[in-house]
Specification:
seven-stranded antiparallel β-sheet; 157 residues; alpha+beta; 3 helices; Polyketide_cyclase/dehydratase; SRPBCC family protein; Alpha-D-Glucose-1,6-Bisphosphate, Chain A, domain 4
Length: 157
């Protein structure tokens, strides 16, 4: 049995908590995750999504630029504090590393703005995934930093 790995990145923005929550939940994934970081590719498309991404139980397929796919299920929407999701059914180059993961976006007041945090709880795919997690974690942190730069560009400026 492998141990879960928790990855977290956060940043503060000059937005209200409500505005940050609503706009980030509705943001198109290819705009948010638009750049490769090391071995983690950008998101090229979202498929099979019915309606706005807002209701727990909804699912969609995320297509990565390297040809891999993932199934995402929205698991909770607790406006304006957080929303959570589960990633499973991973195909492509990430499959040998990650069996599934739980993700969360959380929002809390910070001075006159909002602190947004993104967390992944990753279940490595056996021994190869466990051995790769230190390197994967560093790559994920760079990928997250780029996503947060996109939040600044798309939601603040």
């Amino acid at each position: 049995m492998t141990d879960d790995v928790v990855l977290r990145y956060d940043r503060t923005y000059p937005l209200t908590v409500d505005d940050a929550f609503d706009r980030l939940l509705a943001l198109e994934l290819p705009a948010l995750f638009s750049r490769r970081y090391a071995a983690i590719p950008p998101i090229s498309a979202v498929l099979d999504q019915a309606g706005p991404w807002a209701t727990p139980g909804q699912t969609r397929t995320i297509r990565l630029a390297d040809g891999g796919t993932m199934r995402e299920e929205l698991t909770a929407v607790e406006r304006p504090d957080r929303f959570t999701y589960r990633i499973s059914g991973i195909t492509g180059p990430m499959k040998p590393l990650v069996s599934s993961l739980d993700g969360a976006w959380s929002f809390e007041p910070a001075g006159t703005g909002v602190r947004i945090a993104w967390t992944w709880t990753v279940r490595p795919a056996g021994r190869p995934g466990t051995l790769a997690m230190p390197v994967f974690s560093r790559m994920w942190r760079g990928y997250a930093r780029q996503a947060f730069e996109n939040i600044d560009r798309l939601l603040v400026r």
